[in-house]
Amino acid sequence: MRLDIITLFPELLESPFNVSIVKRAKESGLVEIFFHNPRDFSSNKYKQVDDYQYGGGAGMVMMIEPIKKCIDLLKNKRSYKEVIYMTPDGNILTQKIANKLSIDGNLIILCGHYKGVDQRVRDELITMEISIGDYVLSGGELPAAVLCDTIIRLIPGVIGDETSALTDSFQDDMLAPPVYTRPANFENLEVPKVLLSGNKAKIEEWREEKALERTKKLRPDIFN
Ligand code: SAH
Asked: Using 50, 70 and 90 to split pLDDT, how confident is the model at 171?
């Protein structure tokens, strides 16, 4: 899978992709990530990529031309499943969306900045719009990092233990059960006995019960 991220501030995205699971995924060749700066596609001698909004009002708007040139160049080289714009008024990101995108093939991800992008970019070039929640950030870079992380960890082979990603919260419309590690007794705080029993069936049963309990309590909306 190849992820092409269009951003004015690639430095905001460097560390999220250079540690832990995402780093390993890149190193093992399961995912390739590239950054593209609209500035490099500006035909203006000042490398201008944004301008005042028509009709007046505060805030700059990212221009269509550099973005279109960049997307065209990428699409001429290979096929992409989706061209995604990170935007607070998009569809809220869910595990379902991440699951689907993790098996879908190459993606272009556009990060906005300032007031966002010229509406014609969204109308003509974008195939999918994703928000990471009902709040506004300064740019699409952190949302893009969130989206990429959630997709990458689902790519088969990325997480060592194949079942690990599948037993995380939201996979079966359920939250994950509690987890414990050594020591079994820490200042009289004990790990539930069943987990030490070695009885796989009993442990599985306990985990399911706890997952249900937790979902009902914390997220009645998905429990129902
Ligand atoms: N004027 C826009 C907000 C622009 S914020 C509005 O009111 O809807 C600048 C950029 O940050 C956006 O173009 C988008 O790419 C990104 N962004 C901000 N909040 C986001 C969120 N919750 N989810 C995804 N992207 C977001």
From this structure: confident
Tell whether pTM > 0.85: yes
User: CA-to-CA distance for 146 and 90, rounded, in angstroms?
Assistant: 15
Query: What is the SS3 assignment for 218?
Result: helix
| Residue whose C-alpha is closest to residue 108's, from 122, 134, 127 | 127
| 106's tokens | 């190459």
Read off the pLDDT of residues 43-66 as tens digits, 9 standing for 90 and up.
989 999 999 999 999 999 999 999
Residue 21 near residue 152 (C-beta atoms within 8 A): yes
For residue 107, give the H/E element and its range: strand 107-111
Cβ(143)–Cβ(15) below 8 Å:
no
Q: Is 54 in the pocket of ligand 1 (CB under 6 A)?
A: no
Ligand 1 centroid to residue 69 C-alpha, Å: 22
Confidence of residue 71 (pLDDT cuts 50, 70, 90): very high
In the reported structure, the alpha carbon of residue 25 is separated from the centroid of ligand 1 by a whole-number distance in angstroms of 28
144 Cα to the center of ligand 1, angstroms = 11
16 lines ligand 1 (CB under 6 A): no
Q: Best of 5, 83, 87, 128 to mutate for ligand 1, by most ligand atoms within 8 A of CB?
A: 87
**Averaged confidence pLDDT in the chain:** 96
Q: Which atom of ligand 1 is nearest to the CA of 132?
A: 23
How far is the centre of ligand 1, averaged over its atoms, from the C-alpha of 7 (Å)?
13
H/E stretch holding 222 reads helix 220-223
Tokens of 8: 């004015």
